[in-house]
Amino acid sequence: MVSSLALYSNDITNDINVVPLQISENVNENVFLIIGTCDINYSIKLIKKLLISHVKPIIIQPRTINNVKELINQFHNKIEIISRDFNLSDLTTFGRILVNKVVDKVFINLLPTSPQELDLINTIFNQCIKLRIPINTLNLKEFSTFNLPFNFQDQTNNLQISIDNYNSSPLSLPIPIQLLNERLLRHLTGSIPHDFKKIYQNVANLYDEIYKNNYNVSTETLRQQLLWLNQNVEYSPLSNLKSLTITDLTSRSLIDISTRDDSTALKKIPNSNGTLSLVGTGPGSLSMLTLGAIDAMKSADLIVADKLIPQEILSIVPSDIDIFTAKKFPGNANNAQVEINQIILNNLEQGKHVVRLKQGDPYVFGRGGEEFLKFHKLGYSINVVSGITSPLACTLVSDIPATMRNYSDSILICTGTGQNGTIPDIPEYNAKRTTIFLMCIHRIEDLYKGLNQKGWDDLIDVAIVERASCTDQRITRTKLKYVVQTIKEIGSRPPGLIIMGKVVNVLVKEKDQKYIQFNDDWKYWVKEGCDSASNNFIDENSVKQWLESMTL
């Protein structure tokens, strides 16, 4: 069986930047030594947890005869109790033969207020360090090298989620804190689909199928299938992944549409009064949806969504409304757009209300204008619902003023990807301007070369803003000279954009100034989560509850 552990050094409290490494370990048939039963309730909780993972617990030096009776009553012959004082030799006597009888882990449950037992704790700890035996001491983190996180186990889906406060054992936390952890786990697990195992298994099967059949396909097809599988997993609604097939990962899924000439495919005369709404969804969070966007989504017959639309936004769409996610995967943008246009047309001809959901604002690098012209020429009624523009919202959630006296007197919003995947014209460098590049992170090396050729200052401040306003928002600050290496190291978390200019660090708090002193040894600073000044008032759960109660 597998158990989760959080490993940390015994001086972790001296450095706030040291974060425990949480691992998942197979501990089947391992021997865990429990020394003392000072807190009998803790001992019982611990043993129950260990037995689930098929650990062999050995209890030495039980505190009282009543403790022994209680343990026997609870666990019968599932544990071994040794009613005598602990000896250091026990560490190398009761373990498995496979590991020379050294026990696998040690838990200490002694009374730290007793000088005699505190000395014993110190002795055991030092010996465990020498023998490289992980040790956990109840309520004494300075005598611990690991912790057992608070966890949720879903055996139906083979899923385990853990929370570690790494300040004390979760089994000994005060009741209110335990309840808080349980509530947080319920919050986290509540969004997991009940059939997650089927989703997981289907994705794993598709991965296996791609590689098992690789002798039948070209290298390019293999690369495309794997890339499209990754894109689907990252962007598609989880419910769609359960029915995803290998055909969906090939250009064959688009062949009937992509081989058409888009200019002729849409020259039909409308035979019904369908309506198209081009709707902007803002940067990504529910709290930044406009009322107009919500109204359009709830009144649609079909929603055609960009792949970057977060699951949180799609989750408020009524279950009786169909959602089609655009297949704009790398190398497939043009074919996917033809497919989108045809699907929209087919539904408009049936008199349906089609909502085209777009990240940010429909008319900012989103082909919204092109779609408007196509369907306007066919005589269809088109509504345009603006969304909060992502470039400007991203500056807010990053604590970056887009303009500020003495720092920036203008804003320039650019794309990093031109037509047919080319690099667009790079603007000249202006030290008093805030420049924001969209759709550029995946081709940062080409963008950097272009900026360099135009004489951009290598020391200009840069912020890489990803998943802006969402709970998994990430903001990475660096200098232009380090931006390529930074993105290579941290990877990408779409959607994302890059902000450049003197304003990037002007609002960084005094206590954080040390983190933006970049050099060859400290190239970037990452902040996870949405905790900027502009987001402190947002409670996504409250927003969702309010949206669910709306009758628009």
Automatic annotation (TrEMBL):
It comes from the Eukaryota. It comes from Henningerozyma blattae (strain ATCC 34711 / CBS 6284 / DSM 70876 / NBRC 10599 / NRRL Y-10934 / UCD 77-7) (Yeast). InterPro entries: 4pyrrol_Mease, 4pyrrol_Methylase_sf, 4pyrrole_Mease_sub1, 4pyrrole_Mease_sub2, CobA/CysG_C, Met1_fungi, Siro_Cobalamin_biosynth, Uropor_MeTrfase_CS. Siroheme synthase involved in methionine biosynthesis. Belongs to the precorrin methyltransferase family. It is an enzyme of class 2 (transferase). Keywords: Amino-acid biosynthesis, Methionine biosynthesis, Methyltransferase, Porphyrin biosynthesis, S-adenosyl-L-methionine, Transferase. One of its GO terms (molecular function) is uroporphyrin-III C-methyltransferase activity. It catalyses: uroporphyrinogen III + 2 S-adenosyl-L-methionine = precorrin-2 + 2 S-adenosyl-L-homocysteine + H(+). Its EC number is 2.1.1.107. One of its GO terms (biological process) is methionine biosynthetic process. Residues 275-481 form the Tetrapyrrole methylase domain. CDD domains: SUMT (cd11642). NCBIfam families: cobA_cysG_Cterm. It holds the Pfam family TP_methylase. This is uroporphyrinogen-III C-methyltransferase. The gene is TBLA0A09440.
